[in-house]
Amino acid sequence: MGYEIFVRSFFDSDSDGTGDLAGIQAKLDYLDDLGVNLIWLTPIHPSPSYHGYDVTDYRAVNPELGTLEDFRSLAAAARRRGMRVILDLVVNHTSSRHPWFVASASSPVNDQRDWYVWRQDDPGWKQPWGHRSPVWHRRKSFYYYGIFWEGMPDLNLENPAVLKEVSGIIAFWLKQGASGFRLDAARHLVEEPDGALCDTA
User: Fold this and answer.
1) Structure pTM?
2) Which of 67, 91, 1, 95 is closest to 40 using CA atoms?
3) Residue of 46, 99, 143, 185 with fewest CB within 10 Å of its CB?
4) How crowded is residue 196: how many other Cβ atoms within 10 Å of its Cβ?
């Protein structure tokens, strides 16, 4: 049985008011008693948001939630009980504060410019789930694509350099003890040039 955990709301091991990875490890016997054999952690990476879906560093743990060593310890302890730990893999987009986007937005000729999706005009597309919020966001005299909001610019996963980086992120977390990943926003990973996944009316 799988069990999704929003880490900061699960169990606080050090009484600082925020649930953490050590708190999950402390409750593994409880989860085992429930029949859990797979733990899915929502994003644990550094992020400016409480939910963590706008990542600023894919190879680190948000200090509010613990450390890399805490994750390795949790994964190992879970495995000894026959449990697996999987992570949310958030690669449709990053935070607008991620160093990749900061570089990309700095200049049209930056080496990382096409790590994100840019254009010179706004075609007026809106989010596809009824909010009618825009998906193209102005930065200087250009527009970047961010289907969720301006703080989450979409990565260009058709760029081989981005795919190589994503592969490296996956390898990194497997080495730390993760058993797999839940792919976030899978439907939106590759943008349609005609806005087929957006409201274009």
Assistant:
1) 0.93
2) 1
3) 99
4) 10
CB 68 within 8 A of CB 22: no
Alpha-carbon distance 32 to 43, whole Å? 22
- Mean pLDDT per 10-residue section of the chain, whose length is 201 residues: 96 95 97 97 97 97 98 98 97 98 97 97 88 90 95 97 98 98 91 72 53
Handedness of CA 2, 49, 70, 24 (dihedral sign): negative
Do 42 and 123 fall within a single domain?
no
60 and 6 part of one domain: yes
For the chain, what's the residue count?
201
DSSP letter string, 94-110: --TTSHHHHHHHH-TTS
Domain count, the chain: 2
Would 190 be classed as within a structural domain? no
pLDDT (0 to 100) of residue 64? 97
Q: What are phi and psi of 2, to 5 degrees?
A: -90, 150
Per the listing, tokens 């607008």 go with 96
Alpha-carbon distance 65 to 22, whole Å?
Answer: 8
> Burial level of 62, CB count in 10 A (0-12/13-18/19+)?
buried
CATH number at residue 34: 3.20.20.80
